[in-house]
Amino acid sequence: MNRKFKLAPSILSADFARLGEQIEAVKSAGAEYLHVDVMDGMFVPNISLGPPVIRSIRKTTDVILDTHLMIVKPERYIRTFAEAGADIITVHVEAVDPGSVGSLITAIKKFKKKAGLTIKPGTSVDAVLPYIELLDLVLIMSVEPGFGGQDLIPHTLKKVEDLARCVDSRGLSTDIEIDGGICLQTVRDALNAGANVLVAGSAIFDTPSPSEAVKEFIDIAKKFF
Ligand code: DX5
Ligand code: ZN
Description:
The protein is of the alpha/beta class. Helices cover 34% and strands 19% of the residues.
């Protein structure tokens, strides 16, 4: 396996009034990515944050900004998110015209950003495989996108396994990220399935100490990598 472990705290569950302080806490505790959920109220039935917030975060930290776009027609906003300071830009395959997925990945890379493709729980891994050689990251949604604090949907772990097998058999180092319902009870299942980037929102920020929660996740993951 060529993949390295990274924890990606999702700021969807952070206290937005204390965002800078909370980001610094999780970064200092060892989180390498910061997961930023962008929702437009169309692709998902919720609205979160957008480019101005990313711009502000970028000014305060050099943590890797892992941007998960839950928006329709994401091709309209690649430049905006790239210029706002995203490091990884991940789009939903379901949100893109099937004939345009390849050119969208190319567009993300033209801005020297890492490109990710993500699938909802009901979408097959086959939807990303044609692009696997081009991608830096594949995100398997383990809940229906839109809200934090949901329970992991067990059948999505099988998708992580299938993807990991495919990535490893081709000798690739594509990050395999899982997002939704990751907590201290489910983290081992996600790692066993082959995920190397774990998104966790409520399990980190809805606790008395986000930094302690980060350390607990990292301690568990160390045994797998
Ligand atoms: C949901 C988002 C997730 C969310 C995960 O659509 O993509 O990143 O923050 O939240 P938890 O970890 O609480 O399930
Ligand atoms: Zn997300």
